[in-house]
Design a protein that fits this description.
about 950 residues; 8-stranded mixed beta sheet
Length: about 950
């Protein structure tokens, strides 16, 4: 690599894989002295016009001096990066540090000249934009704050790369050249541009996997059975609209087809492009297949082969090499150990999975990391009886297996603007990048519902997961804050998803209940109360109710302005049959269509006929497809409602009141989140905050070491710069010291033991309050000594009494995976045992601070519960906003704890505080776009 004379070692951390605009991938890495031949070969493939734009003159070939200059870098003042595919250069960028007069310079000069060259065949793929993000990040790391570029006026593409990047810039024209200067500090616009490009690229990369024009299955057995043969049969039987190929190197040379599918011994033998390859060969043969696919120009792989990270350390390294190998050729991977992918779009009809049946088309997107859970989800959505019925079907399905490359984040990017998907359902055994997932989930949830089941245990062995210190419950709370509908089981996942797929969102929590069973109506009423809904008194139509009675009652309930949703309960009457079921289903359907805009759910008990009738009335019967993938016969053709636009009004039916109400409650909470997300609030400015002074103080403190917990005085000083006043607590190692401290602070005072086993444990008796004079103080001091030991064991302190109120705790912590989190709860063992703590991601807005206080179960204690005096919650909200600002402004503040914070009727008192400083963790969400490396 670099020679010993270079100033810095090869910066391996600059290497990255990126997704380009068309969905393909490229590798970005530093250029070294070993790249001379690659550089010359790359330059030979660049057109004369592109060379002219780069050098402002005809420049047919690079001289030996040029090659030396462009391959020898010190990685500080001179840096070159290359984008590669298949190990060959497709684009380069370099910067040279310059002084104010434009000459070569070294630090502390903070400006550099930057220039690009992109091979003509790869122009338009977003390569230059990706390189600009990475070279800018490198420059910032090396102390460069500004780029300058000179571009010919006719080079519109390159001018657009710079102007579209979103950086603050200046533009001038002199001597026939456009000069652009721009600051490298990320702006809101540059981050927005970067994330928009990320979404388009990653969505496109998934779209290429789910909508291929041609598919090859490698590892197809010559006889029925086996994984490869099963996948081939499933693709064929689903009626895939593109070209399909069977590949097995064991096929005889004379064999040209297999059950009507063209057969080949190698991917190389296939004439024409192959977009997607399903790999089902033994693990030791996968590298050879990947090479064949890459050389043939395949766009993506679905690797169903097992034997990777799920099998242990050797398999994990094998998995890493698989991903590196595939990305070398610009390919993305679903898997390994994957169940497969499905796309029910009529223009694709792809079932490249181990699911033997193609799901009915619909509006629900499914993602499952587990193949077994994927099977269960598909089965529940497809079957007619024994569960939720009268429902819609699936748009796309992805089972990612070990998710070594394509993950739930990528699929979310695709679903965000997928016109075929209205609701996204995800089963996640692990979250590889919680910070990014939360960001993408918030954006997706603002457009369409996202329902998630997250495994509570440790991540499966095949999954690489970033370490997080946050409890599972905290991660769940943060997901809910981002608009994710977080449920506990796959039954709830399906129940909630099906309601959201075709029913409108409720406008509130008021629920009307109508039905022909008083008992079932009361069960539904109680379930609503348990879920925090506001049920109206159930309307009992009696068991003699007819379909017309149901129609009239449902119509009146929907027309009632005091109702936001309706649950219809129904039990069978003696002697009723299919005709009565069909009539009831039609009555409910017509009533719901006449008064649209409110969700309707049906609870049926042992009434399979109604479930089937509802399905028929709503035109959701599954279509049958012949084994050869032919078009459905007339009697089998799917009804038009399956492909109906939004608002088709499918009424989901549930076999239990609890399941229906739980799904409705999730819809109510999600609808409320959507309404609030329109105006999320603002992060307020406080005029008394000393951000600069705090930075200087933190810098000076960190100079002592890599990480430290501040002392009392330093903690008070830092918090004071953000307007947070901490009551002083003076040490009292002797009774005389305690008396002197009380004189300094003024009576009445509190005497507290601060030993670790007694700290914040008033229930153990280590605190004495309202000590009005010296006599009471000395008596309390002696009592503590008799109960708990010597002053050295107690570590007593004296503190001025604060006004009585409610004891609370405010914490902030920076988690390496999830980011900065603000937490709030009441102080005391009861809250800790119940886990009654609420969380929000930092920075917190004023509306989020208000909701944080109100989201704990013990919140009524703050608002006058049982006649008590309400406390000053606005002061508490302000305190949390100040803590949020401190941690957001200074990522070196990795932990803050304020305990207790006594909130009185007027004002509050912070009686204890601790702050920990450390070098901030690296934030990859603010850096250039990269694919994760597991």
């Amino acid at each position: 690599m670099q020679t010993s004379s270079d100033r810095h070692e090869y910066p391996a951390h600059w290497e990255a894989d990126v997704v380009l605009r068309d969905g393909g991938t490229a590798r970005i890495r530093p250029i070294t002295v070993d790249d001379a031949d690659r550089l010359v070969s790359f330059y030979e493939q660049v057109s004369d016009e592109s060379k002219y734009y780069r050098f402002f003159a005809p420049y047919p070939r690079l001289s030996a001096k040029d090659v030396h200059r462009f391959t020898h870098h010190d990685f500080v003042d001179r840096v070159g990066l290359a984008a590669t595919v298949g190990g060959e250069f497709i684009a380069t960028v370099r910067y040279d540090r310059i002084s104010a007069d434009g000459r070569a310079a070294s630090a502390p000069a903070d400006e550099a000249e930057v220039a690009f060259l992109v091979q003509d065949a790869h122009q338009g793929r977003g390569v230059a934009s990706a390189l600009l993000e990475h070279i800018a990040a490198v420059a910032r790391e090396r102390g460069i704050r500004r780029f300058a570029a000179e571009v010919l006026p006719a080079n519109n593409k390159m001018i657009k790369v710079f102007t579209d990047a979103g950086y603050t810039q200046k533009r001038s024209f002199e001597d026939g050249v456009v000069r652009l200067e721009f600051d490298l500090e990320p702006t809101d616009r540059s981050v927005a541009v970067q994330r928009a490009r990320e979404q388009r690229a990653e969505a496109r990369s998934v779209r290429r996997l789910l909508g291929p024009g041609s598919v090859a299955v490698v590892g197809v057995g010559r006889t029925p059975g086996g994984v490869g043969r099963s996948v081939l049969d499933n693709i064929r039987d689903a009626g895939f609209t593109g070209s399909l190929y069977a590949v097995n190197r064991a096929f005889p040379e004379e064999q040209k087809e297999l059950d009507g599918v063209p057969a080949h011994r190698s991917v190389r033998e296939i004439e024409g492009p192959v977009d997607l390859v399903v790999v089902a060969v033994p693990v030791e043969h996968v590298p050879e297949v990947v090479t064949e696919c890459g050389e043939h120009g395949v766009q993506g792989l679905v690797v169903v082969t097992a034997g990777y990270a799920e099998s242990g350390p050797e398999g994990r390294e094998r998995q890493r090499e698989l991903v590196r190998h595939a990305r070398t050729y610009g390919m993305r991977i679903i898997g390994p150990n994957a169940f497969g992918v499905i796309n029910t779009n009529a223009g694709v009809r792809l079932n490249a999975s181990l699911a033997p049946e193609m799901p009915r088309p619909g509006r629900i997107g499914l993602f499952a990391q587990s193949g077994a859970i994927g099977i269960a989800l598909l089965s529940r959505l497809h079957r007619r009886g024994g569960g939720v019925t009268g429902v819609t079907g699936v748009s796309t399905f992805v089972s990612s297996g070990n998710r070594a490359d394509v993950s739930g984040n990528d699929v979310l990017q695709y679903w965000y603007d997928d016109p075929d998907t209205d609701v996204a359902l995800m089963y996640l055994e692990s979250i590889g990048n919680p910070r990014k997932f939360t960001r993408l989930a918030r954006r997706t949830a603002a457009a369409k519902p996202l329902v998630v089941v997250q495994g509570a245990g440790s991540a499966p062995q095949g999954h690489a997961v970033r370490a997080t210190r946050l409890p599972h419950a905290t991660v769940s709370a943060l997901l809910r804050q981002a608009g994710v509908i977080r449920v506990e089981t796959i039954t709830e996942l399906v129940d909630t998803g099906l309601l959201l797929a075709r029913q409108p969102l409720p406008g509130g929590a008021r629920v009307a209940i109508v039905g022909n069973s008083e008992s079932l109506g009361l069960l539904t009423y109680d379930a609503c109360l348990s879920e925090g809904l506001r049920p109206l008194a159930p309307l009992d139509l009696t068991t003699a109710a007819s379909a017309e009675d149901f129609h009239r009652a449902l119509s009146e309930a929907l027309a009632d302005e005091a109702c936001d949703a309706v649950v219809v309960t129904a039990i069978p009457a003696v002697g009723e049959g299919p005709a009565e079921d069909a009539a009831l289903a039609e009555a409910l359907k017509s009533a719901a269509e006449a008064v649209p805009g409110k969700p309707v759910l049906v609870v049926h008990v042992e009434l399979g006929g109604l479930a089937e009738a509802l399905s028929a009335a709503m035109s959701t019967a599954p279509q049958a497809v012949s084994k050869r993938g032919d078009a459905p016969r007339p009697a089998e053709r799917p009804s038009t409602a399956v492909q109906a636009p939004e608002g088709g009004g499918l009424i989901p039916a549930y076999p239990a009141a609890e399941r229906a109400v739980r799904a409705l409650a999730e819809a109510v909470k999600y609808a409320q989140w959507r309404r609030e997300a329109v105006d999320p609030g603002r992060v307020p400015e406080f005029e008394d905050i000393d951000e600069k002074g705090s930075a200087e103080l933190i810098g000076g403190l960190l100079a002592r070491g890599q990480g430290l917990t501040l002392g009392v005085d330093e903690t008070c000083q830092l918090l004071g710069k953000y307007g947070i006043d901490v009551h002083r607590a003076l040490p009292a190692p002797t009774p005389e010291d305690a008396v002197e401290a009380a004189r300094t602070l003024g009576y009445p005072v509190a005497l507290k033991a601060t030993a670790p086993h007694l700290r914040h444990r008033a229930d153990l008796g280590g605190v004495r309050l309202d000590l009005a004079d010296e006599e009471q103080l000395r008596r309390a001091y002696a009592e503590l000594g008799e109960l708990f030991g010597t002053p050295q064991e107690l570590r007593p302190v004296v503190q001025r009494m604060a006004p009585r109120g409610v004891d609370t705790v405010v914490r902030a912590v920076i988690d390496p995976a999830a980011g900065a989190v603000l937490s709030f709860g009441l102080a005391g063992a009861a809250s800790q045992l119940l886990g009654d703590t609420a969380h929000r991601l930092i920075p917190v807005t004023d509306r989020e601070a208000a909701s944080l206080i109100r989201s704990i179960r013990t919140a009524p204690l703050l608002f006058g519960w049982r006649g008590s005096t309400p406390v000053d919650t606005p002061a508490l909200e302000e305190l949390m906003l100040r803590v949020s600002r401190l941690v957001d402004d200074h990522p070196e503040v990795v932990a803050v704890t304020l305990e207790p914070v006594v909130v009185a009727a007027h004002g509050l008192s912070v009686l204890g505080a601790s702050v920990r400083l450390a070098p901030p963790p690296v934030r990859d969400d603010l850096g250039p776009r990269t694919l994760p490396v597991y």
